[in-house]
Specification:
With about 280 residues, this protein is α/β, with parallel strands linked by helices. The protein has 2 domains: about 170 residues, Rossmann fold (3-Layer(aba) Sandwich); about 90 residues, Pantoate-beta-alanine ligase, C-terminal domain (Pantoate--beta-alanine Ligase, Chain: A,domain 2, 2-Layer Sandwich). It is about 35% helix and about 20% strand. The chain has 10 helices and 9 strands. The strands form 2 sheets. Strands 1-4-3-2-5-6 form a 6-stranded parallel sheet, sandwiched between helices. Helix 2 links the parallel strand 2 and strand 3. Helix 6 packs across helix 7 and helix 9 packs antiparallel against helix 10.
């Protein structure tokens, strides 16, 4: 496994490969990341993983400085998973000058998580496009836990005619249902025991939709109140169309229930799809 820190060295290394598949990460890897790698490996001769904590997608009061950085442990896991190339650039390598050219993901960046985290999806789309240009993969793997991010990037690839196939992987969960996330390590023991209730609330809303309930606002308010009663501080729980994250219309058959909520000092996101 080659660990590479510069764009020039990365491009030189990848010139030897007939094709590659790419898994971008911010590090602090867990079983969810490894599952993405397992999906990636059969798809190309070379599997590339990046580790880069992207300042551009963090707000001024968010956890950029304390975001867990565990490079040595990450490289051990990646080596065991059979990764070929790990790209670990410094910030100056990705942003050698102020990034004045950015990707604006239309109105999708302003709803749901984008409304709570202004500029977040601009930062995500911009760094992912830069990484795509550096790695030149024929396909890239992303997890559905970040559902809105997946839609932002899918639209970017389509509208900019990028020659890259995006593969969206199902969320990997702990045995108690909690979606795996690097931020789960912020949870105290008591909070960790409570955290799976976020998934439980989403499943409750999904089951109501699956049995014919269509008062979307009532479902959202009821499950949000139940979560708040348990001590959470919900940012939103919202039922949307899978295709564009707009409110569903009558006769909708493909929906997704999305949630973001704080438990103590930790903000967790999750979602469940509903196909009727």
């Amino acid at each position: 496994m080659d660990v590479i820190h510069s764009v020039s060295a990365l491009r030189e290394r990848l010139q030897r490969e007939p094709n590659n598949v790419f898994v971008p990460t911010m590090g602090n890897l867990h079983a969810g990341h490894i599952q993405l790698i397992n999906i990636a490996k059969p798809r190309a001769a070379c599997t590339v993983v990046s580790i880069f904590v992207n300042r551009l997608q963090f707000g001024p009061k968010e956890d950029f400085d304390k975001y867990p950085r565990t490079l040595e442990k990450d490289c051990t896991k990646l080596r065991e998973a059979g990764v070929d190339v790990v790209f670990v650039p410094d910030e100056s390598e990705i942003y050698p000058e102020p990034q004045t050219y950015v990707i604006e993901p239309s109105d999708l960046q302003h709803i749901l998580d984008g409304a709570v985290r202004p500029g977040h999806f601009r930062g995500v789309a911009t760094v992912v496009l830069k990484l795509f240009n550096m790695v030149s993969p024929h396909s890239a793997i992303f997890g559905k836990k970040d559902y809105q991010q997946c839609l932002v990037l899918t639209n970017m690839v389509r509208q900019l005619a990028l020659p890259i196939e995006l593969i969206l992987a199902e969320t990997v969960r702990a045995e108690d249902g909690l979606a795996l996330s690097s931020r789960n390590r912020y949870l105290s023991p008591d909070e960790r025991r409570e955290a799976p209730h976020l998934y439980g609330i989403l499943c409750k809303a999904r089951d109501q939709l699956a049995t014919g309930a269509r008062d979307y606002q009532r479902i959202e308010l009821d499950v949000m109140a139940e979560l708040a009663h348990r001590g959470w501080k919900p940012d939103y729980i919202s039922i949307r169309r899978q295709s564009d994250l707009r409110p569903p219309v009558n006769g909708e058959t493909a929906m997704v229930v999305l949630a973001a909520a704080r438990l103590g000092g930790t903000r967790l996101i999750d979602n469940v799809e509903v196909n009727i």
